[in-house]
Amino acid sequence: MNKSLIFLFCMLFSGVAHAEFEKMRTVTDPQFGPLRQAEALDVSLDLEYGRVSGRGIGILNARLGYLHVREPLFISGGPAIRLSTGLSTALGPQLQIEHLWMGMWGQGAVLVDTHGKIIGTIGAGFSIIGAEIQLNNRGNMDIQVFFKLRLPVGVLLLWACNQ
After folding, report:
1. Mean pLDDT computed over every residue of the chain
2. What is the pLDDT of residues 121-152, one digit of tens each?
3. Helix axes 153-161, 3-14, angle to 10 degrees
4. What is the number of other CB atoms lying within 10 angstroms of the CB of residue 34?
5. Are 61 and 87 in contact (CB under 8 A)?
6. CB-based contacts of 98, cutoff 8 Å, min separation 6
7. What is the biggest distance separating any 2 CA atoms in the chain, rounded to whole angstroms?
8. Of 48, 65, 135, 136, which cross-links 59 as Cys (Cβ 3.0–4.6 Å)?
9. Model pLDDT, residue 14
10. Calpha distance 159→56 (Å, rounded)
11. Distances (CA, A) of 113 to 57, 88, 160
12. Helix, strand, coil abundance in the chain, percent, nearest 5
């Protein structure tokens, strides 16, 4: 892909994040060779699907936060919002750790929905697919499993803007 198109995309859609990506550094490790390091703004989107009380539920999780890169680890976190087709909207902090070389990731959040109920989530996966377990306190402890498609926008921009 043409580098000027990638640059234009980075400037238009990532704003301040592009300036942060320019600060990416490379350090040399005696065992692994050159490793990348950076700090940047991060955006992450997760699409989820599961069944709650016999009906299908779709969820969109969005997080805007901070990305800390110390290759092979990408650590990101920040405030997240959960929008759903059958559950109430929820807000709270989310943290994610990804091992770039193995493609494995883990993610957790503590959210509070519009009814004041606390929701704990923990998810794991490989590449862009995974699963998430949600614990909801709706009078009794309710556990749900969701299948997850993860779209790490910040990581993709980091890669594209540094090609």
Report:
1. 80
2. 999 999 889 999 998 876 667 788 999 998 88
3. 140
4. 9
5. no
6. 73, 74, 75, 76, 104, 105, 106, 152, 155
7. 55
8. 48
9. 44
10. 35
11. 16, 6, 35
12. 15, 65, 20
- Give the residues across from 141 on adjacent strands: 137
pLDDT for res 1: 46
Amino acid, res. 84: S
One DSSP character per residue, 2-18 reads -HHHHHHHHHHHHTHHH
Percentage, residues of the chain above pLDDT 90? 40
Which of 34, 15, 17, 61 has its CA nearest to residue 159? 17
Q: Of 13 and 79, which is predicted with more confidence?
A: 79
Amino acid (one-letter) located at 69: V
d(CA 113, CA 133): 16
Q: In the 8-state DSSP scheme, what is residue 87?
A: S
The type of residue at 26 is T
**Prior bond to 152 cis, omega within 30?**
no
3-state helix/strand/coil string of 130-149:
EEEEEEEEECEEEEEEEEEE
Q: Dig out the tokens for 135 from the structure.
A: 């614990």
Query: The whole model's pTM is what?
Result: 0.77
Q: Which two structure tokens, joined as six digits, stand for 93?
A: 């902090």
Q: Which of 128, 130, 110 is nearest to 120 (CA)?
A: 110
